[in-house]
Amino acid sequence: MMELDELRIFQAVLQEGGITRAAQRLHRVQSNVTTRLRQLEDKLGVALFLREGKRLVPTAVAWRLNDYAQRLLDLAEEARLAMADAAPSGRLRLGAMESTAAARLAPVLADYHARYPAVQLELQTGESRTLTVAVLDGRLDAALVSGPLDDDRLEQTVVAVEDIVLVAAAARGAPSLEELADSTLLTFGSGCSYRQRLEAWLRRQGVQPRRIVELGSYHAMLSCVACGMGLALLPQALLDSMPQMAAQVSTHALPDDLSRAPTLLIRRRQARQPALQALETMLLERAWKGGGRLGAYANN
Asked: What keywords are assigned to this protein (predicted)?
């Protein structure tokens, strides 16, 4: 019979990409990790990794097991918390889009830290697609991403609705479709949901932008826009949080199907923990105080 400890070791090896880093993460000796991993493979009667020298390559079976392992470990944690003090405590691994972290999270996290000092909160920023994969793989407990998402493995709660605007140099008027086709678009990587929205809308208009330049931060993006390098798609709330930089650019309205984007708090279904429930409650409280614009979006 599989043991939860074996599943934790298996997940660490899968996520860290090898025995050495998994052992460091788990504070175990490498020989113990190797032995427990082989014991799990013997119990299952299948190879979870292909050995190529010192490298371990996950098999298709390993990725299937990972989904079951995460569900079993989540259920075990839920049972532990149900039998113990339900006050928020322990580690909470949260992911967030950079725009959400910059424009909305700081006051929430400050309040959360003051209310729940026993929670060790870890924040990782990234693109929506990357964060979603991390939640599904169990590397994050939850994430704030741009929706909508269509994945039955996830619970989704709308915690904000962003007004999305096209940002150009300060002296520039609203660009026409022809100007968009001849413009440089300043974006994050291909996993950025706002970039995907803009590219999908341009395709519907039969427009192919001349050039796309990927940047690593919104500060860099706004600076390049202000200098006339190109155009960007950004949440209005982010501009509101950076008034000095916002004063150096102009904003332009987008079509209705592009101009509003729900921000979702996502987690794996049935993954319950008091620390995450408390954060969700605080995010919703702040959203409703901010104007109650969530009614148009249903939660799953």
From this structure: DNA-binding, Transcription, Transcription regulation
Least Cα distance to 40 among 25, 61, 17 occurs for 61
Peptide bond into 148 cis (omega under 30): yes
Beta strand 142-146 with 90-96 is parallel
Q: In angstroms, rounded to a whole number, what is the distance separating the alpha carbons of residues 288 and 155?
A: 20
pLDDT tens figures, 235-293: 888 888 888 888 888 888 887 778 888 899 999 887 778 899 899 999 988 865 544 45
Is the pLDDT assigned to residue 41 strictly greater than 80? Answer: yes
| Beta carbons of 268 and 70 less than 8 angstroms apart | yes
How far lies 188's CA from each of 95, 166, 259, in Å?
A: 16, 15, 18
pLDDT one-digit tens code per residue, 161-176: 888 888 888 876 777 7
8 in Cβ contact with 66 (< 8 Å): no
CA–CA distance, 94 with 101 (Å, rounded to integer): 11
β-pair partners for 234? 165
DSSP symbols for 109-134: HHHHHHH-TTEEEEEEE--HHHHHHH
- Asked if residue 11 lies in contact with residue 17, where contact means CB atoms within 8 angstroms, the answer is no
What's the confidence (pLDDT) of residue 298? 41
CA distance 209 to 39: 54
pLDDT band at 68 (very low <50, low <70, confident <90, very high): confident
- 3-class SS of residue 291: coil
